[in-house]
Amino acid sequence: MTTFAPDSLALNRKLPLWYQVSQSLRASILGRSPEAPLRLPTEDALAAHYGVSMLTMRQALKELEEEGLISRHRRRGTFIEPHARRGAPVRLLGSVDAIVAQQSGMRTVLLEHGPVPVPAELSEHFPDMAEVTGFRRLRSDEETAEPTNHARNYVRPDVAARIDLADLERWPMTKVLRDALGLRIGRITDTVEARLADPETARLLRVPLLSPILHYTGVTYDESGRVLDVALIHYRGDRFSFTVTLDAH
Q1: Is the dihedral angle over the CA atoms 140, 146, 149, 154 positive or is it negative?
Q2: CA torsion, points 26, 109, 190, 29, in degrees to nearest 10?
Q3: What mean pLDDT value characterizes the chain?
Q4: What are the tens digits of pLDDT across the range 36-78?
Q5: What is the DSSP annotation of 135-181?
């Protein structure tokens, strides 16, 4: 039987290996094509693919099994759940791959794009510019078509000019910048806070006016410290939670 082929992963030794492997495999599963096989390679093959121990691989698979993305059967193997839930909790652990993984597997519609004045609240990130390129997208669950989040990205014009709009309907902006454009990302600063849905957000996310939402701000820097992109994302409060894990070592 043909097995599913996960993406490769460059491991960061400062983060738990099981977590990085689970997030990379999660992104591969949720971003798979409809015709991709549902059976995963054996634990031995996966451990060799990622260059980790069997213990690390089993811990990563346990995480995905608890999330409902895979099922493991003695003697039969490990299989992707064909109707796995996409709106899983978002876990942030300081990895770019984690951010990419959490936004994979959703249907994305590009609502609008083009030059816009730098919003006053973002002027500190673009001190040398009067205009940036704005992108507005709506993400929905692939199976239910229920809106899950509304994203606005503000990107440096020289960077935005290189973006293929089709990529924005397939991938998160972080993946577009890093993988499609080949930019070297130095760090991403994330802020999450609770807010109330304004009229536009309530309409797009199909929630009552003033209902609670999660507001995410992500500032992406290149290796020189220059801001490439600022993302402002509104998540439905009834579909997402954020868990931050701190490594004490």
Answers
A1: positive
A2: 0
A3: 85
A4: 888 999 999 999 999 999 999 999 999 899 888 899 988 889 9
A5: EEEEEEETTT--EEEEEEEEE-HHHHTT--HHHHTTS-HHHIIIIIS
